[in-house]
What does this fold into?
Amino acid sequence: MTDLALCKSPMELKTAVQNGVRASRRALQEFLAMPKDVAATEVLTAFNQIAGALNGWAQQANVFQQVHPDPAMRAMGTTMEQEVHGFQSELSLHRGVYERLASIRLDSEADFEDRRFLDHSLRDYRRSGVDRDEATRDRIRLLQEELLAIGQAFDRNIVEASTSIRVEGGHRELRGMPPDFLASHLEDEQGGVSISTDPQDYLPIMLYAESPAVREQLAFAYNNRAYPENIELLDQMLRKRRELAVLLGFADWADYVTEDKMIGSGAGVAEFLARVIDRAMDLGRAQYAELLAAKQRVQPDATRLEAFDVSYWTECVKRERFAFDSQEVRPYLAYPSVLQGVLATASELFGVRFERREEVATWHPDAHTYDVMEGEQRLGRFYLDIFPRPGKFKHACVMDLRDGIAAGGGHTEVLPEGVLVANFPQPTATDPAWMLHTQVTTFFHEFGHLMHHMLSGRHRYFGFGGFGVEWDFVEVPSQLFEEWAWDHQVLAKFACHHATGEPIPADLVDRLRAAEEYGKGLSVLRQMYLATLSLQFHTSDPETLDTTATLHALRPKITLVQEQAGTHFQASFGHLNWYSAMYYTYMWSLVISKDLWSQFAKDPMDREVGARYRQRVLEKGGALDASEQVRDFLGRDYRFQAWEAWLQA
It folds into this structure.
């Protein structure tokens, strides 16, 4: 068992990835040369080893193009991802490999994982178009390569699109902003202040800035990031996805990409979205009316809420209605304490511990290494890359750095590795970096992903880790782990006031939850708008689709709020590349996670329930259908009732 070596230069990354591709090609030839009378399990093991040679190197190229501080390393990561994808595309369309796998006959006593690995491999080959004629396979291969390059450019444009606005009136125009925000945004010699479109500036401005002109100016810049360059790239992406889906026998990309998911089809997505919108619309309308009334008390001539109004007036109503100001929580939420709280909660719940490895070199001084330990056994390794910097991925996510694999079948044990990326405020000698509670829930969310990846790396076949589960279940462990960020029992262990050291009071947590629950009607509708937008983009005829017109027409129908005139949000909607038509995944997963949470509701830190959840869900990864995992944990199929009760509470 060896740790993954992190490459230190572009040439080292290039050499490592190309060596991996060559090793995979050798494994491919060895697979094809196997005698016909070899046992079925040996054939499956040999096929599995084709992926093993690239494990860690392919993912490293992807991670580095997203987070590495060196532009040359980011560029090399992009190039190497294309080279890996080229080989993987070739492999997915290899008739010889498919035919050898299709010839395998497993007997009735075959191991469940063997049978599942074979079934899924054959399914994936058929979905790749391996059974099409040679000319069609060549076109499929070209489309896959083009889509990768388009997606890489789309993502890179978003990362590099960070811009700023100038607030000419300086702090006078920034009334309502927290003192630490003003202290970190000093006026220049002309009395102005520069505000970036990065999350650490954008979110506080939308919540607290009293000036609608400032909010409008920043929102306009934020929602025009990567415009116009990403509009043409998006059009190309949608056209090529439609062509590829049709070549593979589907009506559109939505049907293709959902066929092997829990939901099953684009029509299933549309039905689900309609059901959620129907449940949330009355609550959303009532909240809209209350926010508009609050705005009219200050601006009597106001007739509607603007897109840049919603967060601000929601915050104002929370202060008035619940005697709650989100800034009231921040003195309890210094980043170092939150970090320890996240680690301690996961440690207690899942029976593991986290050891910092300061001796392990990383790609940036701000990226830190942790090992996941159970007793004396190491289960995995992860990196935290938490703070913003130029050229880095702008939001929060977990990236797979290496898949875990159990020992046996001709290979040694490999431990899973991953990277949690965020853009939270960075502590300094004088500022411990007070966090908003929404940033705390984001941290818990991403750590839920990380635990899924870390704890599911004990299978014999690649593709059975946490990220190998059906993609519309992948957000369940992350959204479930957010629940612990709302529990007073959990928060009181790490959320202590910076001046007094007192733990966060229960009544403040109660008011925090009440305030957060208040905004969920419009929040759910916002999610449904994004999900409907991603679905419509992938079901409409791309030759006639105007993504900007569609976006501006759709938003008021679902969110009740007009999109800001002259903006092009879709140009920076990164999920259109990563999730394509599957943005519904977040709400679908929330329905399931609310049901799973019912098992923890009496005692969130019940170790017995935590162990059962770990064993029956997290550790299973993609080695068992998600619906079976839920049934094993709940003792029944999941239901909508818990989510509906949460919505109406």
About this structure: The longest strand covers residues 377-385. The mean pLDDT is 96.
